[in-house]
Structure formats: C-alpha cells, structure tokens
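User: Structure please.
Assistant: Input sequence and predicted structure:
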Amino acid sequence: MPERSERSSGQMVAHRRAVEQIKESYAAIPGDAAPRLAKATTNLFRFRDGGKAAKLSAKDLDQVIEVDPVTRTAEVQGMTTYEHLVDATLPYGLMPYVVPQLKTITLGGAVTGLGIESTSFRDGLPHESVEELEILTGDGRIVVAREDNEHSDLFRAFPNSYGTLGYALRLRIKLKPVSPYVRLTHLPFSDADKCMLAMQEICEAKEYDGERVDFVDGVFFRPGELYLTLGQFSDRAPYVSDYTGMRIYYQSIQSRTRDWLTVRDYLWRWDTDWFWCSRAFGVQQPLVRSVTPRRWLRSDVYRKLVGLDRRYGVTARLDRWRNQPVQESVIQDVEVPVDRAAEFLDFFHSKVGMTPVWMCPLKSGDDWPLYPLEQGRLYVNFGFWGTVPLPKGQFDGYYNRLIEHAVHELDGHKSLYSTSFYPRDEFWRLYNGDAYWPVKRAYDPGGRLLDLYEKCVRGR
C-alpha cells in the first residue's frame, strides 16, 4: 500500500488535472450563458426557474487530497462533502473545527455560504479555520487566496458570496483533536429568557458545573419547553446510543438527561431525520421506519424528495383537492444577538408558530465583510424548516418577509441559502454592497457570474 505522502502526491496530480479541466470547461461556456456549478448534492433551498445557464461539472473535485496529523491540516477539494472529510480525519483523531449538521454539505459550499454547528460558540464559522483557498474566479483565472497575499481581498470576501465571485477548487483547513466519545447533557428550561441567559453564561465560561463544554446547541419545542444540550469529549463511555435506526435523536432530548454517542454519530446526529423534517415523509412512523432501508434515512434523500415534489407539484395539487389553504415554505436560518433571542422566539411563535426550532450559539472571531456579525458578540442561530398556511388574502413571501423585518429590527442577520425577499437597496445595505462590489469588479469584471442579489434574491 503506498505511503501517505505518495498517496497525497498522486491526489494532488489528479487535482491539477481536474483544475485544468474545469478551467477549460468554464472558458468554453458561451458568453450569454450564466455558468452554474453542477453538484451531485445540494443543500440550497433557492429553487431556480428558467434563465439561460450552462452547467459546469465538478465531479472530479470531490476528494480529500491529504490529511496531515502533524500540522493538523487537511488539503481538500471544494466539492468534498463533510461526510467524506470526517471519514478521512477521524482515524487520525482529528475533525474540522466546525462540522455542519448535514453529511452532504460540501467544504466549498460551507465556506462560500452558511455553515454552523455546536462548536460555533468556540470556533465561529467554517471559513474561520480556512488557511488557503484555490478559486476559479469569475474572469476565468485560477488564484490562490490567503489572508497574507495579494488576493487577501478575495479571501476575506469569499464567505457569504455564494459562488458569485468564483468557485472554491481546493481549501487548506485547520483541524482539531477529538476524543472517541461525546457525553451529552440535556438541560430543560420553561422560560426562554432564562434559557438564553444560561446559554450566554455557559458559552462565555466555556464550562458548566465546573467542567469544560465542547459543544452547545438546543431546541425550542414550544413555549415553556426548551432544552440546551451540552457536549463534552470523553475517552470512555458506559454505553453509546444509536439514532440511525428506529430511535430518533430529537425525541430523546425530551426524555433523557444524559446520553453518550461516538464522536462520528454525534457529528451526524441530526442527519438521519434531517433534524425533525423527516416526519413529513412518514418515516418517523414505526411501521414505515421499520421497512425503510437505513441508507435512505439521510438528509440528501429527503432533499431530493422535496425537489421532486416542487417539480411536479404533488403537495400543492393535494392541498387544492382537499381545499386546504396555500402553504408558504419557511425554510431559514437566522442569527440574533443572544440578548434579543428570547424576543425573537416570542415573535416567531406568535406570528409563525412553527415548531420545533433549532438553537445554536455562535461567535465570530473576526470581521468578515459579507457576513455582517459583530466580532466577539454572541449570537443564536435559529433554524426552522417547513411550511405554514397563508392567511386569506396574503401571498407567497408573507411570512418570510415578516421574519426578515424582525431579524433586522433585532440587530440580527439572515443566511441566503434559501428564499429572500429584500428590495435591492435594502439588500445591498444589509449585505455590505460597498465591500462586495470592488471585489466583484476585480475578479469578475465582465459579470460572467450572477451578482449576490441576482442569485440569492431574484433566484436566477
């Protein structure tokens, strides 16, 4: 079997071939066609309709090139999934600093878009552990961007640019050591203000009851029932739970105070049931679940089902047949300062009413121009994903626009992976157009790629 250095050298040669191939393919796209990256999986919920676009294949850019246990870094191609990366790093006792919740989120996608998880109160967002980016820019160049080189402007602006400045072909990221197990403690709260205060205190101290805390997230099930889940690395475990079969992770939060998982199962605890969204497909029913192959209990399978439903309009036709009100998709992640988070929950429950809601604290360690979070301030990411019946006389976008207004009134911020309804001027004010446009003009002067507003709001 070849040594690690030989394998990584071979992987780098293959990477160079893939880079030349995608560069040539990009150059061959007609000037009147907007390039669109073709990926095997997607976690975006901006369903694009129409528009003349040419697909750019990235099928040979989905590998881990090298894991270096000495420097605790990994060289990774941009379309590599976190599932693939974690499988490559865990044998060395390492993991990425932030591992987003779903297996098929890609490294490039998390860095150019949204990535967050229960280490984010310590380690920020995925782009904050990136040391180097190799990018195919909008004008067709291949550049290597770092904090300390001539492309530092691109390096800083790449997070939250959603493929409008270029595509990540290779990333060098830092890794952190792990233990084999994670011990979970579920803390119940009946009051949102007290829950947020406890979250703030735990995240600031990075410990609870005198012990280090490595992971923090939580769930709002309903007013009067909230939980914080604290995770701590452990070298031993008296038992481990399995939530990849009949048992469902989010339901265990309400019934257990303490739990143990392998570190791999902890990282993917949300993926089996797409948090709780798998219930829409009936697979949380014991009979259905018992006959469903485990390989189908995955977020990417559910995402494909949603895409098929949207394409063929099955749910919409059934709703009309049953004389049900039109449903609006409310699929969003938003960040609100922790001291305003209870206010957001009050608003969300009274105006939208969807439950459960995921809660995940985060703190950015630096100032990223297109990701306008205040450096060093603790925020809470609220994730909510589903549909809500529209009130009579209202149209699609009603709830999403209410949420957009509320988030920014509370000094918060909204991710752009799903639908957005901002007017153009408001969008560029909130998403720092003054910082975006100089970089856009420098690396995509001909406008080959859509700009951030056209892609993320108009959905072209």
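The mean pLDDT is 91.
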